[in-house]
Amino acid sequence: MNNQSNIKVGFESDLWDIANKLRAQGNVEAYEYRKVVIGLIFLKYISDAFNFQYEKLVAEGDGDEEDRDYYTAENIFFVPKEARWENIAANAHTPEIGKIIDDAMNIIEKDNASLKGVLPKNYASPELDKKVLGDVVDLFTNIHMHDMNEEKDILGRTYEYFIEKFASIEGKDGGEYYTPPSIVRLIVEILKPYKGRVYDPACGSGGMFVQSAKFIKEHSGNIADISIYGQEKTIDTWKMAKMNLIIRGIDGDFGTHPANTLLDDLHPTVKMDYIMANPPFNVKDWGLASVANDVRWKYGTPPNSNANYAWIQHMISHLAPDGKIGLVMANGSLSTNQSGEGDIRKNIIEADLVEGIIALPTNLFYSVTLPACLWFVTKNKKQKGKTVFIDARKVGELIDRKHRVFSNEDIKSITKVFEDFQNGTLEDEKGFCAVVETAEIAKQDYMLTPGRYVGIEDQEDDGEPFEEKMGRLTSELSEMFARSHELEAEIKERLGAIGFDIE
Fold first, then answer.
1. Domain 173-379 maps to which CATH number in 3.40.120.10, 3.40.50.150, 3.40.30.10, 3.30.1330.20?
2. pTM of this prediction?
3. Which of 247, 205, 210 is nearest to 228 (CA)?
């Protein structure tokens, strides 16, 4: 059995740096390499979980270490000898390593029905450099913990971290399966999914579910008190989500196959207590014709030119009597009046379903630069006839030139605004938050843009008299204009010198 030394907490970034160098050396596209690495992390997880139980049974001395029942009783996948990590590690630098891993995946799927069709089997592909593959196997061979719970956490964190890094590299494509954790955490902290059915109709790699499980654990709850439902249309992402939950020890119903939620709802009759989602924004030609008369369009038929209100209404249709939704949506959904979308929004507002709207800052997502927002839709709201608006566009911190995150304090601050609103104790803060009655929203033509309601924060008086300030600013502006004329003349002169005159 593997007795490698423990890897220290916080090792993920070093591990990624090494793995990414291997990818570059092998000239493997990030998309293909993601499938390779994510599959290996999962294989390592189930093999180590098996080994932990195996060693425990060996120590007991009753000869039960190869008895499948002693693993399934502990919710551990049984791993046949040929598929165990020690066999893969021993053959890491043989020409057959790709086939050995593919065979291991097939054997495990055959022996564990819940994994059928989930595990990647592309390791024998001629395009995959076998030296690079062997080096990656070596890399993960060294991830080993002696405690089962710690092992689950280490590999779960590694899996999550690698998904995030691949999403960053893949940009727009990566955003299709990944929502940054700080946004997910904010949604989870506001909804507080302690007990009931939790649903994500565009679940990507399953991040909403992982954060829900963390929330329950941090608040001393029981993960068995929630039932998870998800749906995802892309097969590789569907597989990622299922593996992500299995690594975390979470059961979930993702349907028997990947499918487009708007056109093929795999959970049509299930009412959900919590719905959390980051559906694709502004999808055109999404297939309305095939579902034009669907019962989900209670508040108006969404246009085929944009699926935003199809997603919103799909989620509302799945709400239990006290159900709550937290979803990421393009800012355009807050104010559009095109193709009947304004009427749909009006009907949803008049049904007293919109509990809160949060305007988000830029650079939170890997996939889009469009301004985005969070919708919180609730049946049986505590504050009837009222909506809380939060302008969080200035909240968050840049972790590099392109990416911003919400800190723990940011999340606590925004969550407290929601809690105070629900408790009826929130006081408006100009430029940040406001409680608004539905009648006022109606006066604003049912627009939901937070800036309309929170106003502009008061600026501190810097003590400079108005006349002096205007004199100084106009003088500075005059200097800028003069400098711009100088630059214009210089550019014309230089272009003229090479035969390009500008009148």
1. 3.40.50.150
2. 0.78
3. 210
